[in-house]
Please model this.
Amino acid sequence: MKHLLSIEDLSYEEALSILDTAHEMARVSDGPVKKLPTLRGRTIVNLFLEDSTRTRISFEAAAKRLSADVINFAAKGSSVSKGESLKDTAQTLQAMGTDAVIIRHSASGSAHWLAHSPWMNGSVINAGDGTHEHPTQALLDAFTIRKHLCGGAGDLGGMNVGIVGDVLHSRVARSNVLLLSKLGANVVLIAPPTLLPVGVESWPATVSYDFNREIPKLDALMMLRVQQERMNDYFFPTSREYAQYFGLNRDRLTLLKQNSIIMHPGPMNRGLEITAECADSARSVIVEQVKNGVSVRMAVLYLLLAGSSEIASAVNAEVNA
Model:
């Protein structure tokens, strides 16, 4: 595996390998010394041409914990703001001897284009391309579900996961449906018809419009942000009506099974898709998702750039050195 562009590129075994490696990396993150020398001398570029907080900082922390040199590249303040093309930017990065590029871009397919362009020899990791995919978010979500509901090992066979809200504009939803179903979970998409994409019936998930009917069945409930910045039309009458039918509130919280968890990829629109009470409840693992993201992204960088098949023994040796 040279690139991580889409969940579809991962086999079942590769997906589990990343999650197992992340489990080992979490031991490093939880230890007194949070740094490994694994990627010393490697150069990783965070090429974020779309706004981000969690993903950018998470990738930066992951790379630095593996001792890589990190270059942060944003559109604002760079030549991109002057009209420089992605091709010219890629050529510039390659000339600097970049080993990996982590790209976030507003155009779907941008990560795939960069990975297969003749101007990029290093690895490419998709950190979100338009409304297409966000594979590392899906991996950290699967890691979080596995940790809480599956004992931290194996796949997600038998788990019922609900993904609720703005599926139409969500790259997180697409990647999660592909990965969670690949790992054996039963996924249901819960949204108004106007916020479901064309062709959703071909996705490996079921569709429901009745949140209250589905919520008692769920082991994990993933609320999606309403992406108003991507909406150029009216997709629901009012915010109040959306919150009434598809928002997570105190009443719906009582319908969840006892051990079910609440998730959200962030940032949250508190009071719209989720109330503050639910976001901050004991059932919520939203903050933990951010923490787990560092471990998962360490695992992805480790596997792409170090390529060791003996992950546990390698990490043990480095931790105990």
User: Anything to note?
Assistant: The first helix runs from residue 12 to 30. Residues 80 and 86 are 8 Å apart (CA to CA). The chain has twelve helices and nine strands. The mean pLDDT is 90.
